[in-house]
Amino acid sequence: MTKFMDKDFLLQSEAAKKLYHDHAEKMPILDYHCHIVPREIAEDVHFENITQVWLSADHYKWRLMRSFGIEEKYITGDAPDKDKFIMFAKCLGKAVGHPLYHWAHLELKKYFNYDGVLNEKTASDVYDICNKVLQQPDMSARKLIKMSNVTLICTTDDPVDSLEWHDKIREDDSFDVKVLPAWRPDKAMNIEKPEFTDYMKTLSDVSGININSFKALKEALINRLDYFASKGCNVTDHAPSYVMYHPASDETVEAIFAKRMSGEEITDEERLQYQTAFMLFEGEEIAKRDWVMQLHFSCKRNNNTAMFKKTGADTGFDAIDAYYPMGELADFLDALAQKNALPKTILYSLNPNDLMVINTMLNCFNEAPYVAKIQQGSAWWFNDTKLGMEQHLKAVSESSNLSGFVGMLTDSRSFTSYTRHDYFRRILCNYLGSLVDNGEYPEEDMDILGEIVEDISYNNAVRYFNFPLETR
Prior knowledge:
Number of helices: 20
CATH class of the largest domain: Alpha Beta
Low-confidence stretches: none
Helix content: 40-55%
Oligomer: single chain
Radius of gyration: 23 Å
Largest sheet: 4 strands, parallel
Number of domains: 2
Structural class: alpha/beta
Shape: globular
Strand content: 5-15%
CATH topology of the largest domain: TIM Barrel
CATH superfamily of the largest domain: Metal-dependent hydrolases
CATH architecture of the largest domain: Alpha-Beta Barrel
Order of helices and strands: HEHHHHHHHEHEHHHEHHEEHEHEHEHHH
Mean pLDDT: 97
C-alpha cells in the first residue's frame, strides 16, 4: 500500500519520479492569474488564525461545507473562527476523492509543518498548531509568498483602479517578488447590468474623458490601458459568459450605447452587438501593445438568487454552463486575424466537454514566430482536479502543442494556494512518465521530457507573457 501523500505523491512510475524530483520540484512559481488583493501584499498583513487564511474568501471550501449540510453561519456567517474551522475539518475528513482533501494537506505540510491528517478528531489540535505558526513575527502575506518560491504575481484589476498598492509594492526594495496588475474590464463590457451607467460616470471621472458615446468610451479605455501599461501590465482577463460574434455597424453600436445611457433597457441582440464591438476593440488594443488576452468563459454565475441576495457574488453559487457556440469564438478570432490584430490569446472554458473543440479550433490561428500563440488555458476552477488536469493535458498533447503550454495558475484569493502548482506538476510528471512506461515515448529522451517539464512549470510563461524575468 502506498503511503499517504509522501514525497512521491501521485508519481506512479520511476520516470514520473525522476521528472518531478529532478526537474519540476526545483522550478519557481509564476502566478499569472489570481485574485489576491494587492493591498494585503503592500501592507504585509498578518493573519490572526488559520480560519482567516483558509476560509475567509474561499468559495471552494464553502461549497464543500454546504454539501455536508453545514449551517451558513459557519460558512459566511458570524460564528467564531475556531468553530468555522472545526466545521470545515469535519467535512474535509470525509471528502474522499475531493481535490480539497489533497490541497489542504499539501498546505498543512508546506506552511505549517504538519504531516498528519485533518478531520473532526484532529481539528482542535491542528487549529492550535497552525495558529502558533501564524503568530511568528515573520509569518505574513509576504513570507508565505516567499516560502512558495514565487517570482511574479498578476492580480486582477478594474480599469478605474488607481493601482496605488502596486506602486507601494514596487517602491519597497525589501520585497523582490514582482506584483503586476492585469486588466479586467468586465464592468465596461456588461452593458446590460443595472450598474453600467454609474460605472461609466466613474470611468469618466478617472480617465478625464466625458463618456457620452461608444467612441468616447474607447478613448477612455485607451487612456486607462496606457496607464496600466505604465505600471507594468501586459496581460488582460475577460470573463464573458461566452465569446460572442454578432457584428454591427458603428452607427448601430452607437445607437445601442446611447439607448442604454439614457436609462432604457436593451434587447439581448443589442447586448451581443455591443459586446462584440467591445471585444473586437479590446483585441485590437491588446495586439497593439503585444499583451496577452485571456478569455474565461462557460460559467453560469449567481444561480441561487436567494443566496446571492444574502451573501453576494463569488460565494460559491456559480456553475459550469453547457451552452457555447464555438463557431462564434472562431469568427471572433478570425475577425481580428483578418485585421492582423489577433493578440496572443489563452482560452479557458469551464466546460471540460469543450477541450477538444477548442484545441482543434485554436490551431487554425497559430502562426510563426510565436510558440502556441493561441492556446488552451490550464484546467480552471471546477476542473483543477486530478481528473480535470489529466483530461486537459491529454487533450492538449493529442491535438495541440503541450510543450508550449504556459502551465498552472492559482486563480485564488489565498496566500497558501501555491501548492496547486505542486499538485499540477506532479500530475504533469505522472502523465509524461506514463508515456515512457507505456512505450509511447523513448526512455533515452528523458532529457527532452525534463526540459518540457521545466518549460511548462515556469519558462514558457516567462517567454510567452514577456515578463521581466529570467528563465531557469
